[in-house]
Amino acid sequence: MTLQNFFTKREIVMDSKINISFDVEDIFGDKFLLNETLLDILEFCDSQQIPTDVYITAMRFSSIKENEKLLHLLHSSNYINVGYHSNTHSFKTIPEQNSFSKLKNIEEYDFDISTKSLNKNKGGIKTLSSEVNLMAFRCPGFCWTPDYFDLMSEYEINHTTIDIKYDKVFKYKNVIVLPVYTKAIEKVESENELITAIGQKEFLSVYLHPARLIYNHFWDKLKENTYHVLTSREIYDDYKIRIEKIKELFLVLKRNFSLFSVRQLSFRPEVTSEYEKHSLQEKLLESMTDKWGWSQILTPIDKDYHINKLKYAFDSIQIGKTIITEA
């Protein structure tokens, strides 16, 4: 199938820098179709030299390994970069939000169920890091706590993304944090819609769930700790066209913007005022407590624990300038 020219070829004059990323999650559906779709899109990005960050859960990776071409591409491509997306997206994986009793059937993926287990059960990340070079981490739903930085440092994962309204990178425990405005693009219908999403933001992470190009139902309900088993009845009739449309959209981005991988970020500290540090702290606290309804999910004790931990650690956070190198 050839590209359909869904979008015009006019130039978009904007200075925004775009990070393209995929969230490849557990998904309870047709694993063969999901793997072949992911392979199709990633082969396209590789052939077009489009930097792409792929955040994969350890549970999902167990089925990816069954596709030799896909596994080889993740190993060998100079443009496809693998990130860690927690062990499982099927349940809340944010520390302190689960009890082990809920996860007896997936014990091998439970290291990040609570902060108490961070130094004990690392089955998922240990397996994944032994198979591919992990360059970054993204929490499910962009949720996060300071505890994850210890784990990232241990496995030499040097980059992460956090969805907060802040326009500078910062560094904590040798991990470069890219604050990004995010936009899911599975359903972008026009170039104007794309421009509106990007606006005048310096950085934007456009991301998609490849499974959403196939299935018309979103499988995951992170808040409720439940998931939906996807069936053939929920496959889009035109899913092949939807995949080609995304490829065309990526070419639009390549023609008009500077594309970068999180792996291309480097960090240069700068002298910042106490006011700016305080502003960043407030935004971090806001993102920690509000994203995915944390204020309703966490108990007051758990919430205070994470907030206080961030406050104590804040003196070691450096604000800096980012340098995006050539691919």
Give structural attributes.
5-stranded mixed beta sheet; alpha/beta; single chain; 327 residues; 7-stranded parallel beta sheet; globular; 19% strand; TIM Barrel; 10 helices
Please outline the helices and strands.
Blueprint: E1 17-24, H1 31-47, E2 52-56, H2 58-64, H3 68-76, E3 80-84, H4 123-131, E4 134-137, H5 147-154, E5 159-162, E6 169-172, E7 175-179, E8 181-184, H6 191-198, E9 203-208, E10 220-221, E11 226-227, H7 239-256, E12 258-259, E13 265-269, H8 274-290, H9 294-297, H10 300-313, E14 318-324
Helix pairs in contact: 8-10
Describe the structure.
This protein is α/β, with parallel strands linked by helices. The protein has one domain: TIM Barrel (Alpha-Beta Barrel). It is built from 10 helices and 14 strands. The longest helix has 18 residues. The two termini are 29 Å apart.
The CATH architecture designation is Alpha-Beta Barrel
DSSP, total strands: 14
Please report the first level of CATH classification, the CATH class: Alpha Beta
Low-pLDDT stretches? 93-122, 292-297
- Supply the number of helical segments: 10
Indicate the structural class. alpha/beta
